[in-house]
Specification:
The complex is a heterodimer of chains A (about 260) and B (about 400). Chain A is an alpha/beta fold and about 260 residues long. Chain A has seven helices and 15 strands. Chain A has two domains: about 140 residues, Response regulator (Rossmann fold), CATH 3.40.50.2300; about 100 residues, LytTr DNA-binding domain (OB fold (Dihydrolipoamide Acetyltransferase, E2P), Beta Barrel), CATH 2.40.50. About 5% of the residues of chain A have low confidence. Chain B has about 400 residues and is α+β, with helices and mostly antiparallel strands. Chain B is built from ten helices and eleven strands. In chain B, the strands form three sheets. Chain B has a five-stranded mixed beta sheet, covered by helices on one side. Chain B has a four-stranded antiparallel beta sheet with strand order 3-4-5-6. In chain B, strands 1-2 form a two-stranded antiparallel ribbon. The longest helix of chain B is centred in the middle third of the chain and has 55 residues. The chains are: A alpha/beta (about 260), B alpha+beta (about 400).
C-alpha cells in the first residue's frame, strides 16, 4: 500500500510548519507533498497532485478553505483547520466533518489521524461535504462577513475630484440620476458615482430613502417640507438648497401631507 | 367657487402674519400700542369730520316764552329756549322729564321717531325722525313741508354721521381681534417650544446612549479571538522552533493586551499610547504574515501627548489588516501618519491592500460606522472620518479630531 499523501493550505508559514511537525509526530508515514498559501493554490494542487488528504485553513486570501473544499468536492478527504471560528466549529460538529483546532493538540490530532487512517484503509470514498458545506456557507457570513444580498448599503463609493471616497449612507441627502451615473449629494458635497440610480433604488433601505421621481431618491430625514406649486409637488431639503420635484407617479407618498 | 378657498387661505395667512407680529408684544406693549391706535384714530376722526353732529337733541321750550322766540331749524338754540345735548338713549327720558316739568308738552314716541308738541298752543312741534329733526312754528308753513326741509337739511349730516361714527369702535374691534390672535399665536409658540425641547432632549439622550454603546462595543470587541488564538498558536510553534522569536512575540502580545484590555487602562488616552498599541499589533502581525506585511509609523514626537479616543486607531489598523492586507495573496504595506494642522489632529491609516468592497472579507462598514458615531458623539462637527481609496490600490482612512482637547471631552 502506497504511503498516504496530503497537502496543507494556510496563509501563515508558521501555521503550516506547525501542522507539518505535529503530523510528522502523529503520523510518520504521511507524506505532505505540497503546501498552499491560499484556497486557489490548494485546489490546483489537489488537481495536479491528487493527494489523499487536504488540510485547509478556513481564512485564507482569495479563496477561503470553504471555497476550496466546494471545488475539491469528493476528490480527496478534507480536514478543516481553524484557530477560532465558533460558528464553523458548530457546523463541523453537526456535519461530522473532520476538523482541527490550531495549535493542534497532540491527543486531539491522534484521534483525527486514527479516523482518517481507517477511512483510507477501507477505501471509503471521500465524504460528500456538499450539504455540510452549504450549511457552513450559511454561517460563512459570520466567519468572514461579506456583503450579503439583501443587506442594505451602508457606504457609497464615489469619485470626488481626483479622489475615490466612501460616503456613509447616513450622510447622503439625495441621489439623482445623470445618464448612466448618479449624483450623490451630502450636506457638503456632490459626488458622481458610476452606477445607475435603479441599483441604488434596490440597495438602499426604502424606509430611509424615498423615490420621488424616476431619477431621484431622497433621504426621508432630510425632507424639510413639501409644498405645492400648481400641480407640482416640490420637496425642500434641510441641508441643501436644491428643490426636488416629485413626479406624479410617486406623489402618493405625500398624499397625507 | 374655486377661488373662494384661495381667498380664505390668503385671509388666513394675513391673520397669521398679524398674529405673529402682535405676539412679539408684551402685555404692556400691547396696551400702549392699543392706546396709541385709539388716540390716533380719534385724532384722525375729528380732523376729517370736525362738525360732527351731536348724538341727540331735545328742544325744550319755556311755558311762557314769547311766541316769537322760535327755534330755528338748526341746532342753534334761540333766545328764550334752551337746548341741551343728551345721548340718544336718554332722549325719551329727557322728553318725559320735559313733559313732566312743563306739564304742557306732549311727547309721542313712535316707530318712526319722536314728536314733541307744545302742549298749550299746538303751534310748535319738534319731530325727531330717522332722517332728521324738524321744528315747526305756528303760523308758518305746513308741518309737512318743514319736515321735508329738515330732511333736506340734515340728510347729509346724518349720512356723514353714519360714516364717521364707526372709526373708533372699528379700531377697538380690530384691537380685540389682534389680542385674540396674539394669545393664539403665543400659546402655539409655547407648545412648539415644548415640543422642540422634548425633541432636543431625546436627541441628546440618543447621542449619549450611542456613546455608551460605542464604548461598550469598543471595549468588548477589541481583542478579536481569531487574532488571539492564531497568535497563541504561532507563539507555541515558535517556542519549539525559535524560542527567541517566541519571546519577542509574547512580549508584543502582552503589550497589546495591556493596551486593549478595558480594565487595564483608564478612560482617556493620548496619541502616543494609541500608536504604541498599534505598533504591538503590527509587530505581531509582521511575525505572522512575514514578507506579506510591511508597515511604517510616522508621528512627530510633539503629538505624542495629544489626546485621542481610546482604541479607535487600533480598530482602523485592525480593519486594514483584516480586510485589506491579510486577504490579499501578496500582502502589502500599511502606513500610519499623524499631523497637526489648523487646530486639528489628523491621523491617516493608508494600506495597499484590496481596497473597499473588493475582497470576500469585505466588511459591512459597521466598524467604520461605529467610529463615525463615536466621533460624532465625542466631538460633534469638530471631528471627521474620511474614507478614500489609496493609489494605486488599497484604502485610506483619515481621522480628524480637535487638537486642543484636554477639556474633558475626551472620553473613551
Amino acid at each position: 500500500m502506497k504511503a498516504p499523501t496530503a497537502i496543507i493550505a494556510d496563509d501563515e508559514r508558521l501555521m503550516r510548519e506547525q501542522l507539518r511537525r505535529r503530523l510528522r509526530e502523529a503520523w510518520p508515514e504521511l507524506q505532505v507533498v505540497a503546501e498552499a498559501v491560499n484556497g486557489g493554490e490548494a485546489v490546483e494542487q489537489v488537481a495536479s497532485l491528487k493527494p489523499d488528504l487536504a488540510f485547509l485553513d478556513i481564512r485564507m486570501p482569495g479563496k477561503t478553505g470553504i471555497d476550496a473544499a466546494r471545488e475539491i468536492g469528493t476528490r480527496c478527504h478534507i480536514v478543516f483547520v481553524t484557530a477560532y471560528d465558533v460558528h464553523a466549529v458548530e457546523a463541523f460538529e453537526q456535519g461530522a466533518i473532520d476538523y482541527l483546532l490550531k495549535p493542534a493538540d497532540p491527543q486531539r490530532l491522534a484521534l483525527t489521524v486514527q479516523r482518517l487512517k481507517a477511512r483510507l484503509a477501507e477505501q471509503e470514498p471521500a465524504a460528500n461535504l456538499g450539504a455540510a458545506i452549504a450549511r457552513l456557507e450559511g454561517l460563512a457570513g459570520r466567519i468572514a462577513p461579506a456583503a450579503r444580498p439583501g443587506e442594505r448599503l451602508q457606504w457609497i463609493q464615489a469619485g470626488l475630484g481626483q479622489q475615490l471616497r466612501l460616503l456613509p449612507v447616513d450622510e447622503v441627502v439625495f441621489l439623482q440620476a445623470q445618464d448612466k451615473y448618479t449624483a450623490v449629494a451630502t450636506a457638503k458635497e456632490i459626488a458622481l458615482v458610476r452606477k445607475p440610480i435603479r441599483e441604488f433604488v434596490d440597495e438602499l433601505d426604502p424606509d430611509r430613502f424615498w423615490q420621488i421621481h424616476r431619477g431621484t431618491l431622497v433621504a426621508v430625514k432630510e425632507i424639510a417640507a413639501v409644498h405645492r406649486d400648481g400641480e407640482q409637488l416640490i420637496v425642500q431639503l434641510r441641508h441643501r438648497s436644491e428643490r426636488l420635484e416629485v413626479s406624479r407617479s410617486f406623489a402618493g407618498k405625500f398624499r397625507q401631507m | 367657487m374655486n377661488r373662494l378657498p384661495q381667498w380664505l387661505a390668503d385671509a388666513g395667512a394675513l391673520l397669521i402674519k398679524v398674529g405673529k407680529w402682535v405676539a412679539g408684544f408684551s402685555f404692556w406693549q400691547f396696551v400702549v400700542f392699543s392706546l396709541l391706535v385709539l388716540v390716533a384714530g380719534g385724532i384722525v376722526d375729528s380732523a376729517l369730520f370736525p362738525d360732527r353732529p351731536e348724538q341727540g337733541v331735545v328742544y325744550k321750550r319755556a311755558r311762557h316764552a314769547p311766541p316769537d322766540a322760535a327755534v330755528a331749524p338748526a341746532s342753534v338754540p334761540a333766545s328764550g329756549a334752551s337746548a341741551e345735548v343728551i345721548p340718544p338713549a336718554d332722549v325719551k327720558q329727557a322728553a318725559d322729564t320735559a313733559r313732566g316739568a312743563e306739564g304742557a308738552a306732549e311727547v309721542q314716541i313712535g316707530r318712526d321717531g319722536i314728536v314733541v308738541h307744545d302742549g298749550d298752543s299746538q303751534a310748535q312741534e319738534v319731530r325727531i325722525g330717522w332722517k332728521g329733526i324738524s321744528v315747526t312754528e305756528s303760523g308758518g308753513a305746513a308741518p309737512g313741508e318743514n319736515v321735508a326741509d329738515a330732511q333736506a337739511l340734515d340728510d347729509s349730516t346724518i349720512v356723514r354721521s353714519n360714516s364717521t361714527r364707526g372709526l373708533v369702535p372699528m379700531l377697538l374691534a380690530a384691537l380685540a381681534i389682534m389680542w385674540v390672535l396674539r394669545y393664539a399665536v403665543r400659546s402655539r409658540v409655547k407648545a412648539d417650544a415644548r415640543v422642540g425641547q422634548a425633541e432636543a432632549a431625546a436627541e441628546r439622550e440618543a447621542l449619549e446612549r450611542k456613546v455608551v454603546e460605542a464604548r461598550l462595543q469598543a471595549l468588548q470587541a477589541q481583542v478579536e479571538p481569531h487574532f488571539l488564538f492564531n497568535t497563541l498558536a504561532a507563539v507555541e510553534h515558535l517556542i519549539e522552533t525559535d524560542p527567541a522569536r517566541a519571546g519577542e512575540m509574547q512580549r508584543h502580545l502582552i503589550a497589546f493586551l495591556r493596551g486593549a484590555m478595558p480594565q487595564m487602562r483608564g478612560q482617556t488616552s493620548c496619541l502616543g499610547d494609541e500608536i504604541e498599541l498599534c505598533r504591538s499589533y503590527l509587530a505581531i502581525m509582521k511575525i505572522r504574515m512575514e514578507d506579506r506585511l510591511s508597515y511604517g509609523i510616522d508621528m512627530p514626537a510633539d503629538l505624542r501627548a495629544a489626546p485621542f479616543p481610546v482604541l479607535m486607531l487600533q480598530s482602523v489598523v485592525e480593519n486594514a489588516i483584516k480586510h485589506g492586507l491579510e486577504p490579499k495573496a501578496e500582502g502589502g504595506t500599511l502606513l500610519i501618519s499623524a499631523r497637526a494642522a489648523a487646530g486639528r489632529l489628523r491621523v491617516i491609516v493608508a494600506d495597499s491592500g484590496l481596497g473597499f468592497g473588493n475582497g470576500n472579507t469585505a466588511g459591512t462598514g459597521i466598524g467604520l460606522n461605529n467610529i463615525r458615531e463615536r466621533l460624532q458623539a465625542l466631538f460633534g462637527d469638530r471631528a471627521a472620518l474620511v474614507i478614500s481609496a489609496n493609489a494605486p490600490t488599497g484604502a485610506q482612512v483619515t481621522i480628524e479630531v480637535p487638537l486642543e482637547g484636554t477639556d474633558g471631552n475626551h472620553r473613551g
